[in-house]
C-alpha cells in the first residue's frame, strides 16, 4: 500500500469514527447512523467531492452538518441518510457557486435557516431558489452575511414569495 492510500485510509477511518460518534448527540432527536450508513455517507462524500472537483483538507464538513441539521423538523430516521447525502451535494455545489467566499459555518447556517423557515424541508427549493439567489448576491459582492454568520439573510434577497397553503385553500373556498 503506498503512502497516499495509507493516508486516505487513516482519514476515512477517523472520519467514520467521528460520524458514528455523532449518534451520541443525535439520538436525542431520534436519529442514528449505522456502520453501513456512515460508510455510505463517506462514499457519497467522496463521490460528491470528485464530481464538484473539490478536495477537503483537515476535518470533514459531515459531522458539523449532522450536528446542525439533526434537530430539523423535516428530517426523520426514515430520510436521515438520504437527507445528509442531499445536503452534502448542495453544500459542495454552493461552496463552488459562491467561489468559497463563505465559511463553512456561514453556508451551513444559511442552509439550515432556509431549509427550516423558507423551504419547509424542500431540497429543490433550497438549492434552486434560496441558495441560487444568495450565491448570486455573494458573487456580486454582497458581504452582509459576515456580520450575521449567514443567519437572517434570505429576506434581504427574497424576490419570490412561496405560496401560503392555508391562504390558498381559503381563497379556493371563497370561489365556491
Please describe what this structure looks like.
The structure is a single chain. The relative contact order is 0.09. This protein has 176 residues and is mainly alpha-helical. The chain is built from 9 helices and no strands. Helix 1 packs across helix 3, helix 3 packs parallel to helix 5 (80-97) and helix 6 crosses helix 7 (123-139). It has helices at 3-21, 23-26, 35-51, 62-69, 80-97, 104-117, 123-139, 145-148, 165-175.
Give me the count of strands: 0
Secondary structure category: mainly alpha
Stretches where pLDDT is under 50 for at least 5 consecutive residues are: none
Give the SSE order as H and E letters: HHHHHHHHH
Gap between N and C termini, in Å?
73 Å
Helix content: 55-70%
Strand composition percent:
under 5%
Q: Helix count?
A: 9
The description of the largest β-sheet is: none
Shape: globular
Determine Rg (CA atoms, Å). Answer: 18 Å
What would the average pLDDT be, to the nearest integer? 84
Topology overview:
Elements: H1 3-21, H2 23-26, H3 35-51, H4 62-69, H5 80-97, H6 104-117, H7 123-139, H8 145-148, H9 165-175
Provide a short characterization of the protein structure.
The chain is mainly alpha-helical and 176 residues long.
Quick tags:
176 residues, 0% strand, mainly alpha
Amino acid at each position: 500500500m503506498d503512502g497516499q492510500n495509507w493516508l486516505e485510509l487513516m482519514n476515512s477511518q477517523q472520519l467514520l469514527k467521528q460520524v458514528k460518534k455523532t449518534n451520541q448527540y443525535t439520538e436525542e432527536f431520534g436519529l442514528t447512523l449505522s456502520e453501513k450508513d456512515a460508510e455510505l455517507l463517506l462514499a457519497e462524500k467522496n463521490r460528491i467531492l470528485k464530481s464538484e472537483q473539490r478536495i477537503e483538507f483537515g476535518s470533514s464538513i459531515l459531522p458539523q452538518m449532522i450536528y446542525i441539521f439533526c434537530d430539523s423538523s423535516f428530517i426523520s430516521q426514515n430520510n436521515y441518510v438520504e437527507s445528509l447525502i442531499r445536503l452534502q451535494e448542495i453544500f459542495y455545489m454552493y461552496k463552488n457557486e459562491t467561489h468559497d467566499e463563505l465559511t463553512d459555518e456561514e453556508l451551513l447556517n444559511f442552509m439550515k435557516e432556509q431549509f427550516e423557515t423558507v423551504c419547509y424541508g424542500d431540497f429543490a427549493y433550497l438549492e434552486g431558489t434560496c441558495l441560487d439567489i444568495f450565491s448570486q448576491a455573494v458573487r456580486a459582492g454582497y458581504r452582509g452575511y459576515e456580520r450575521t454568520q449567514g443567519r437572517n439573510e434570505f429576506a434581504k434577497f427574497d424576490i419570490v414569495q412561496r405560496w401560503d397553503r392555508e391562504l390558498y385553500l381559503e381563497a379556493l373556498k371563497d370561489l365556491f
